[in-house]
Amino acid sequence: MPDASFLSAWGLPGLFFVAMLAGSVVPVPSEALLAALIYGGAPPMLATGVATVGNVLGAVSLYLLGLWVARGGGGALGRWYARRREKEGPRMERVEAKLRTWGAPALVMSWMPIVGDAFVIAGGMVGVRPLPFVVFVTLGKGLRYAFVALSTAAAL
After folding, report:
1. Checking CA distances to 23, which of 40, 47, 66, 117 falls within 20 to 30 Å?
2. Please, what sign has the CA dihedral across residues 36, 4, 34, 110?
3. Hey, what's the torsion of the CAs at 75, 76, 78, 82, to 10 degrees?
4. How far apart, in Å, are the Cα atoms of 61 and each of 39, 113, 124, 134?
5. Helix or strand holding residue 143 (H, E)
6. What's one Pfam family the UniProt record gives for this protein (predicted)?
């Protein structure tokens, strides 16, 4: 994976793309790229918004996967998810139980590394409605990026 200085040459469109990948299951350094762009002079609020929108769109792909698999679809992707669920069964069961108990507001936790993906997929699996899904995932991911952006701007 290229380092953040190389990726920063892509600017805000690159940040959008990298954040979208990071919102799915691809581990890429979206926070590092956000910090590099702000260090390079990008407006912190604009960069935060771009990263948040990209990351939420990536999360929507996982949400749709969860919906699709819950309805019995998915083909090879569904089989991959079933294997992952067997391997991580207790964690996924806990996440699904939290979503059933707390509902869509639990999706604010989608910002967390690794566990956040489980929250997003489980949101689709348990049938969280699309609008609350987008609202709470955006809140969680947006706050994470805002923290990174503010920390970077304060360090300048």
Report:
1. 40
2. negative
3. 140
4. 30, 17, 10, 12
5. helix 130-155
6. VTT_dom
